[in-house]
Amino acid sequence: ISVSELVDASLNRINEVDGQVHAFLTVNEDEARAQAKKLDEKIGVDGGKGALFGLPAGIKDNIITRGVRTTCASKLLENFTPVHHATVMEKLDAAESVSVGKLNMDEFAMGSSNENSGFIAARNPWHLDYVPGGSSGGSAAAVAAGEVTFALGSDTGGSIREPAAYCGVVGMKPTYSRVSRFGLVAFASSLDQIGPLTRSVEDNAHVLQQIAGFDNRDSTSANMDVPNYVEALGGDVKGMKIAVPKEYLGEGVNEDVRAHVSNALRELEKLGATWEEVSLPHSQYAVAAYYLIASSEASANLARFDGVRYGVRHDARNDLIEMYKKTRSEGLGDEVKRRIMLGTFALSSGYYDAYYKKAQQVRTLIKEDFDNVLQQYDVIIGPTAPTTAFKIGENIDDPLTMYANDILTIPVNLAGVPAISVPCGFSHGLPVGLQIIGKPFDERTVYKVAHAYE
Ligand code: GLN
Questions:
Q1: Is 246 a catalytic residue?
Q2: Does the ipTM exceed 0.85?
Q3: Which of 138, 188, 211, 305 has the greatest CB tally within 10 Å of its CB?
Q4: Ligand 1 geometric centre to CA of 410 (Å)
């Protein structure tokens, strides 16, 4: 099959289903076809050597793309076209995949259902009345609906893993600093990571192999060699020690979800692994600490969207302060404003010690919980989310219920460790996700276990 045929198939599928799924905010049909043609011409010249040669990809719309509109699903950036690429885009270009467009998300990656998109909510391809999860809902939906071979997402508190679970695909959040954040529009810089969403663990390892690695344009990037993830897939799990945190199977976790995770553990036992119950005692404070830290960082990061430097500017030309105010009040959605206010409050003098500093101390305790367990076990396993996908509109007026949904993914970001979500069955026709958490920079073991189970 030629690259043009492959890219045509992807574009046709998008035309066929995306009017219902709404995974895409921008489709670069002409550019994608032109690039496919160029790649086809390379076959026979240098053989098409790229590791992801010709594969149609979708990119979450908070990853900047040269010459292609990048909105973060915000009205404020409706007309923003970057002049350069994120590092991951340069790497994908070098690997010769073909970006077919930019994917829907919660505005500035704030949300768990995609309903905070400033444009239109993406839908779950398994059931269009249900959310695809968020914030990388477009990424998960596009892969699940067969619109692209792989997608890139970003994960600050679960935004790759939760939508992957809800849509029945594989989503990897690498170790913090493993993948360059240069060109990822910052939400909470100490938590954000880019990662791949795919249909299989093998595909996922191939994509991470290409996007991981040191980048001197990201001051937090890890200066470490990238091991061979693909090679790790062949290994078996005999003798591996799995930790199962009791907090991850407790109250609030749906019974079907629990049953599917127990089945998965039995499968892994059959393959020669053993598991034991452990405790991550500070997990109960993770959601509270996360919403203080993430909102604080967001309030600082989003100050740049003032109508002067990027995107839409309100037409209040005679008064600068008025222009800032109108641009931000009209351009930003309710959830984004809620976080900016919460973060500004938590960082203000007089409250800083009680909120932000306290939250950072809790974060250290959570990280120590993970360090302790991961010293004795190869991986930690539990569900990705307490339930399967919920109905569109079900939680929209209740931010606290929506926040609690991330209780099993957020601790992983606070600790900075890698974790994958892989499909582990269905409940009432909707997919359930299994979460496998690893030691820092040990994505290889995470992939090995995920592949053996899959
Ligand atoms: N749902 C979480 C939030 O709203 C996580 C988002 C994310 O990982 N980007 O902050």
A1: no
A2: yes
A3: 138
A4: 8
